[in-house]
Write a structure and sequence with these properties.
The protein is built from 8 helices and 14 strands. By secondary structure, it is of the alpha/beta class.
């Protein structure tokens, strides 16, 4: 081997090489810190926020083009313009009921159609059980539900096939409430809740315009409040053709944003879990990805 030469070098030994290398490493680490720290505003916007309250509303059987850009849905499109639009959101199954179970528990739980299931047939982890186990608050508000905790399969325009929480014995039936109990003081809302309109208001049996008007009349004030109180409104559909409409609105959302990333019920479930700071993820949500690219810095 040739002898080294230069300052601090004697034969094959170079005095002071390690301190120089250490300094270089330190400078590199500092540069990385500056890149991720000072330049972190863009990366911060990709993290899932932790709103004070999250309300999820699920409508029925409409494809993306039947709602987004439709004259029959002026309010949902106003939410889209002032919030975020997911342009490639997909459901899991053709029948309604499996999609509700997928969104709520990360699995269809073997449900293949809209048949009336046996209440409490599963103890699998789900959004509500995780929320309650973490000491956080949860409720569902269901239009035309015959009474708080009622497990009837149907009643007038009410249909239990849109209420997956009744399928789980680790979710108190009493946490399912008639929509009339939705708080007028929104600060008293649970940290996470679902709203399920009945078969007319959810557009299943009635026109898109009916559901759009219902949303504005019943949750428009909450949407406005959410913009000022660090809270979130999620409006999605069970099925109706791929993609299906999904709009997010509130303080944590960048107005006018959109994402063309392909997402599904499991991704939305994962995102909802992460808005709550939950450390567990139900079913396929464990391997799903968060919705990103729409959150305000």
């Amino acid at each position: 081997m040739a002898s080294s030469s230069g300052p601090g070098c004697t034969g094959r030994r170079c005095v002071g090489v390690r301190p120089v290398l250490a300094s270089a490493v330190a400078l590199t680490a500092a540069a990385v810190w500056l890149w991720t720290g000072l330049g972190g505003s863009s990366s911060a916007a990709t993290r899932v926020p932790t709103p004070e309250h999250v309300v999820v509303v699920v409508f029925e059987n409409r494809a993306y083009g039947q709602v987004i850009g439709s004259a029959g849905a002026p309010y949902i499109n106003a939410l889209r313009t002032g919030g975020a639009n997911l342009t490639r959101f997909h459901s899991e199954a053709h029948w309604s009921q499996p999609n509700y179970f997928a969104l709520f528990s990360g699995s269809t739980q073997g449900i293949k159609d809209d048949s009336c299931y046996r209440p409490g047939f599963s103890s699998a982890p789900n959004l509500a059980s995780e929320q309650l186990a973490a000491g956080r608050s949860w409720a569902s508000y269901n239009e035309s539900l015959p009474g708080q905790g009622s497990t009837r399969c149907s009643s007038g325009a009410y249909a239990r096939k849109h209420n997956p929480w009744f399928g789980f014995r680790n979710v108190p039936a009493s946490s399912a409430k008639p929509f009339a109990q939705f708080p007028k003081d929104y600060s008293k809302l649970p940290q996470l809740s679902f709203v399920i309109p009945d078969l007319c208001s959810d557009m299943h049996d009635c026109p898109v315009s009916t559901g759009d008007t219902w949303l504005k009349e019943h949750l428009g004030a909450y949407a406005t409040w959410a913009r000022a109180h660090d809270s979130l409104l999620v409006v999605t559909f069970d099925e109706g053709g791929d993609p299906i409409p999904t709009v997010l609105y509130g303080r944590p959302v960048t107005p006018g944003s959109s994402s063309s990333t392909t997402y599904d019920d499991y991704d939305l479930l994962r995102t909802l879990e992460d808005t709550q700071g939950l450390t567990t993820h139900a079913g396929k949500a464990a391997t799903a990805r968060d919705v990103t690219g729409i959150w305000a810095p």
